[in-house]
Each structure stands twice: as structure tokens, then as C-alpha cells.
Amino acid sequence: MAPIFSALAVVSAAALVSCLPASSPQQLNDPTYGPVPGEADLYNNYTGKARPFPGNTTAPINATGTGVASPDDLLFQNLLSAEWAIYSFYQQGVEAFSEKDFTDLGLPNTTYERISQIRDNEDGHLRIFQDQISSNSVKPGACKYNFGFDNAETYLALQVLLEVSSMAFLTGLVQQAKLNATKGALVAIAEVESRHNTWALIDVWGANPFSGPSDTVYPYANQILDITNQFIVPGSCPAENPVYPSPRQNLPPLSFNMSTSTGEPGSKIDFVFLDATNVPKFDDSQGYYAVFFHGVNNISVPLDTKTNSSVMPKEFDAARGITVGVLADEEGAPTLESVVAGPVFLLEQPQELTRQI
Ligand SMILES: *[C@@H]1O[C@H](CO)[C@@H](O)[C@H](O)[C@H]1NC(C)=O
Ligand SMILES: *[C@@H]1O[C@H](CO)[C@@H](O)[C@H](O)[C@H]1NC(C)=O
Ligand SMILES: *[C@@H]1O[C@H](CO)[C@@H](O)[C@H](O)[C@H]1NC(C)=O
Ligand SMILES: *[C@@H]1O[C@H](CO)[C@@H](O)[C@H](O)[C@H]1NC(C)=O
Ligand SMILES: *[C@@H]1O[C@H](CO)[C@@H](O)[C@H](O)[C@H]1NC(C)=O
Ligand SMILES: *[C@@H]1O[C@H](CO)[C@@H](O)[C@H](O)[C@H]1NC(C)=O
Ligand SMILES: *[C@@H]1O[C@H](CO)[C@@H](O)[C@H](O)[C@H]1NC(C)=O
Ligand SMILES: *[C@@H]1O[C@H](CO)[C@@H](O)[C@H](O)[C@H]1NC(C)=O
């Protein structure tokens, strides 16, 4: 980046963030307080490393009323908690890296700028979700997050996975929404996550970005949100935050053995339970299934509970989008309660990144 451009960017960034008096978290209860998403460049192309508003105000925003909650408050509390993790992932990337870290990998010189712009969009999501929660409910604050990336390359691998998983949990959250306006807002957010992912697939991975005619629908969104708890530093969440996600099933975390399983259609898959203290208890008198969700359908394959293995459905198109796998005690996992472990993401694209979360 030419020095003159970055000097201008800093001036412009300073102008954006200095126009408000010091804020207390409670002032954020007013949706007109601070830059408004859709009306402020802060959420589009702020280039500073310093945390922008409202990402800089990490304390929870207490409820100011005691009336009944708005019908979708719980949904947006869950989504805001998830967004704090996603925003923090990009904020940490903006702070940790520079343009050169990415060009050194042979990537386009716009890569860092895009990461910074995605950070800005995610920052705008924080504000949108805060505004959607009524003042009769607490607006969750940030925890501390450890994503475990150690360089720009591992960072970018995780980036695709986070965008793909956010597209998947939004397909579930929209099914919980009570208000039509909520459904519209969630689709609009999913469309933006999809653009972030499309950019990464084209510019970073040099891949065909198309995921097939439909991305993957998974109805039990809170089970996916629960997986993001692995990024939260234990005990670091504000005491006022509600349980995340709420309600939380705390299902056994599921993965697969990457040295014996490729995740390719028709291949054997050996499941692995990641937490020895939280594994499913299989009842010998009944059958279990690995249920794979891909596109708008799911396919069940019997689970061998002696080996914890199953077979990837051969019907699914290879190398397109994601498959979400769960273990269930009923074919098709028709209810929330029928899921006994998971979910696990099988990222089919880009191929070289096939891995579990
Ligand atoms: C960025 O890369 C493009 C082509 O890939 C080049 O034309 C442009 O000059 C580069 N910009 C900077 C600031 O290096
Ligand atoms: C952000 O975009 C606006 C509108 O195009 C432009 O006026 C502004 O200079 C840009 N800011 C930065 C930091 O690039
Ligand atoms: C966050 O940024 C806003 C806008 O620049 C500023 O008014 C506020 O004081 C900042 N809050 C904190 C806690 O730094
Ligand atoms: C929010 O409520 C908690 C107690 O529930 C209190 O400790 C905290 O000071 C309050 N925060 C603000 C900004 O009023
Ligand atoms: C949502 O939209 C449908 C179709 O327009 C309408 O029938 C229904 O009443 C709306 N629901 C709410 C909660 O507003
Ligand atoms: C994965 O499979 C390999 C080869 O069979 C085995 O050595 C290893 O223990 C397995 N890993 C797990 C976590 O089960
Ligand atoms: C299968 O999973 C169960 C936990 O439900 C575990 O006790 C058992 O050791 C696993 N079997 C194999 C072969 O990994
Ligand atoms: C999976 O597919 C079956 C058959 O179409 C359907 O009955 C079931 O509801 C689906 N499961 C979920 C969780 O959508």
C-alpha cells in the first residue's frame, strides 16, 4: 500500500471514530446512538487496527425495562453472542497481520483490505443484532476468544470454515424466527456471509465458488452455535450474559478420523468423540444413524456402534459446499432430541481444506 494512501486512511478512520463522546454500554440501548449500519462507512471500509464502535464496547448492555421480551430476543441474543466470536476473529486478524503477510503467500494485494472490510461488516452485524434485541432483555457482551491460528495461512483456512458455518446456522435460525422482519434480516445477513465466502473461494483459494444449487440447510441452529464455544476462553464471558446458546443441549462434540476418512461420497467415515467426558451412550437394543445434511436434503446411513463408523452417502455431489453430519437415534434426525452427537462439518470445498471443525 502506498504511504500516502495509508496516511489518508488513518485520517479518515480517526474522523470516523472521534465524532462521538466516550460511550457507556448503556447508551448503546438507543439504536440511534453511534453510526447506523447502512448509513455509515465505518461498517464498510474503516481501515484502522483499533476496534471500531460498537466492537470497542465489549461490556453487556443491561436491560432497562422489566416488561415482556420481544418474541425474537432470545434468537438475537444467541446470534449476538455468536457474532462477538466472528467479529473478534476478524478483529484479531486485522490486528495480527499486514498486507505483506498475505502477499508473501502469493495472494492478491487486496487480501488484507478485504479482511479489514469483512471485519467492518461483522462490526455492523454486532450493532444490527444489538438493535434487534428489545431493551427488556440483556444484550450479551464479548468474551475472550482463542482461535488457535498461528499464521496467515492457518487464519485463512479457519476463515472459510467460519463463513460456511455461519451460513449453515443462519438456515436454522430463520426457522426459529417468530417475526417476519427477523426472517428477512437473517436472510440479508446470510447473503453477506455468502459474499465473504465467495470472495475467499475466488481470491484466496482460486476455486470455483459455487456450492451447487443450494447451500446446506440444518434446522437445529443452536447445535452449530454450541460448537463455537470451543473458541471461548473458559470463564471469560461476562456474568450478565445468558447461557450460550440458549437453550443449550451440550451434545457430545463429534469429529472424524482424518487419517482413515476422506469425507468423500461413498467412502467409509470413522467418527471420533472429542471430549472423553461427554460421549453418547449407545443402547444395544436400538439402531443409530449417521445423518448427513447436504443442500436441502438429508440422507441417513446406519451407524456401526461397535466401531463408530458409517459411510458417506454416495448420492451427494462431490466437492461442492458442505455436508453437516450428526449421529441420531432416529432415521432423518426428525427432532432436536433425536440427535445424540455432533454436528460435524465436512467441508467439501475447497478440496485441499477438507477438515473437521
Ligand atoms: C496490486 O496488484 C495489482 C495487480 O495484481 C497491481 O496492478 C497493483 O499495482 C498492486 N497495487 C499495489 C498498491 O501494490
Ligand atoms: C470509504 O468509502 C467512501 C465512499 O466511497 C469514501 O468516501 C471514503 O474515502 C472511504 N474511506 C476509506 C478509509 O477508504
Ligand atoms: C468506542 O468508539 C466510540 C466512537 O468512536 C467512542 O465514542 C467510544 O468512547 C468508544 N468506547 C470505548 C469503550 O472505547
Ligand atoms: C449491569 O448489571 C450488572 C448486574 O446485573 C451490574 O454489575 C453492572 O454494573 C451493570 N452495568 C451497567 C453499565 O449499568
Ligand atoms: C408474516 O407474513 C405473513 C404473510 O404475509 C402474514 O400472514 C403473517 O401474519 C405475518 N406474521 C407476522 C407475525 O407478522
Ligand atoms: C485414527 O486412525 C488411526 C489409524 O487407524 C489410529 O492409529 C488413530 O488412533 C485414530 N485416531 C483416533 C483419534 O481415533
Ligand atoms: C465408540 O464410541 C463409544 C462412546 O460412545 C466409545 O466408548 C467407544 O470406545 C468407541 N469405539 C471405538 C471403536 O472407537
Ligand atoms: C430428513 O429428511 C427426512 C426425509 O425427507 C425428513 O422427514 C426429516 O424431517 C429430515 N430431517 C430434518 C432434521 O430436517
Architecture overview:
The protein is of the alpha+beta class. 36% of the residues lie in helices and 11% in strands. The strands form 2 sheets. A 4-stranded antiparallel beta sheet has the order 4-3-6-7, with helices on one face. It has a 3-stranded antiparallel beta sheet with strand order 1-2-5, with no helix packed on it. Strand 3 (289-294) and strand 4 (297-302) form a beta hairpin. It is globular and about 60 Å long. The model is unreliable at 1-20 and 351-357 (pLDDT under 50). The structure holds 2-acetamido-2-deoxy-beta-D-glucopyranose (NAG) (8 copies). One 2-acetamido-2-deoxy-beta-D-glucopyranose binds at residues 219, 298, 332-334.
Helix content: 25-40%
How much of the sequence lies in strands comes to 5-15%
**Helical segment count:** 8
Task: Return the structural class.
Answer: alpha+beta
